[in-house]
Structure prediction request, 569 residues.
Amino acid sequence: MENFKNEIVSVLQPLVQLAEKDVQQQLTVPPELKMGDYSFPCFVLSKSWKRSPQEISAFLAEKLGEAIEESFWISDVKSVGPYLNFFCSREKLAQETLQGAFYEKEKYGHLQEGQGKNVVIDFSAPNIAKPFGIGHLRSTVIGSSLYRIYEAMGYNCVGINHLGDWGTQFGKLMLAYKLWGSEDSLREDPISYLYQLYVKFHKAAEEDPSLEEEGRKWFKKLEDGEEEALQLWSHFRDLSLREFNRIYDRLDITFDAEQGESFYNEMLAGTIDSLMEQNLVQESEGALIVDLEAFGLPPCLLRKKDGATLYATRDLCAAIYRYEKYRFHRLIYVVGAAQSLHFQQLFKVLECMGFPWAERCVHVPFGLIKFKEGKMSTRMGNLIFLEDVIDKAVELARQIIEEKNPGLKDKNRVAEMIGIGAVIFGDLSNDRIKDIDFDWDKVLDFSGETSPYIQYAHARICSILRKENVTVIPEINTSLLETGEEQALILALARFSETIKKAAETYKPSILARYLIELTRDFNNFYHQCPVLTAEGELRQARILLIDGVRQVLVNGLYLLGIEAPSEM
RNA sequence: GCGCCUGUAGCUCAGGGGAUAGAGCAACGGACUUCUAAUCCGUGGGUCGCACGUUCGAAUCGUGCCAGGCGUGCCA
Prediction:
């Protein structure tokens, strides 16, 4: 598809006297398939040419008539009103696309742009000693998907789970444990017990604000390395990690490093020192800050008046450490939009410190998961556990399998793929910046724009390909694929690669998710209109290769979202 | 107060200068002796929050307003 576009630019550019870039930018996709594959609107030329866009379009179409004959990709040019519409050679496009999918398999659609470059992605980052709530799903699945998308772009990715394993909340938790905790209850169900303690603490602190102060003291003890505090901390941390890993396993998510906030403790002093040497630090109201007023930003707090550090300090250390270790081409933080200001400050401080790579740090923000009942917060105790959501979705998938395909083998495995896929897709299919209204009915709906819809189409294709006397052969007569449904499918497949690129550039997996829905819709139209198995000879072979291409792109695309596709369901 | 984000069909959302603004859900009506009906086809449903501006052209860009969310120094 890119080749086709480039060819349009090269034949059109000398005629219209615009820069190549401008020509490229003007090109749009017509609203209907039969209008062509790319269109050049002639309005821009109207003024300088002193002619109506309709006349210009007609003129250009005639002029281009000859140039087109020697063209490889462009099969036709038509003037439609003010638009100049280009048609791609469908046979060549089908050839290139379908053979590409056939030969490149799971690499189909991938690019080489990122060869030899490292991209560090900071995602998930749950807080130790707190349950893995539905709120953590977003960073986890968006980050993991971006990881896979950037790998498909050719980059070498480093996924880091910046665990929230340090900070004042631990002081509070330790205090709560000291006040009300019991080792027995802790051992029984660690996370949920710690969670209860945490909620209890915040309720009690409302009555007695001195508890907050006491909690901060406990965190200070931890930072000072006091034995008892350290032991409790390490105990809580181990128990939590075990729980998180169970969830990551189910979601098929891995990290290359699990350096949490605590990892940077030893570097804190050094970082503050070097900030001081550069005269970037000031004392204010007993705290240590970097004044950013010159940049229209509130000050960045490095150290509290009690001497304990804040997360900005740890994030500074982390960024510096990561650059030294990975020399990243880009450092991506997949963190909620609520922390936008924090990252503006963080990047600005790095810039002030003279790090040229500060501009290669990006915050990829996302909206909140909201509830009809109001805001969800760990403190209030109205958390929805991610695992409960997954369990319910998987259970529903199992029920539907029992009802529709009771003879299916490996039911549990398939139910897991479908249920988990639905949960992930439900999150990734919407623009990440928007808040999501959490709705059980929506999570547990497997029809329409959902991943089971895509998986189902995939399973149907596999079912056809499993039939006797079906062999996928790459050499076909592409001119036989002439119905609107087939053309639409080929075109959709041809746009896979540019969709990956767009998703990567905008850090939006939702673009890929939408693409897969549309591809699946195109396939379903085809499926209901064009028989494969009962088609004759060459046409049958051509359609077999076509659906095999669709199958491959569905698998590859779902993989990039972190979703598996069962071959039967 | 100030800053950032969001506002499109009853609901959930695509589209983010270009041709008639699209899906899904919900409602109603159709399609399984034919490749899996978790599917498909059809019907109804819209002052693209409001106003002004830029442009040949605005849901899309700018400014102002309205509504909601988030943030705004010792949480992360």
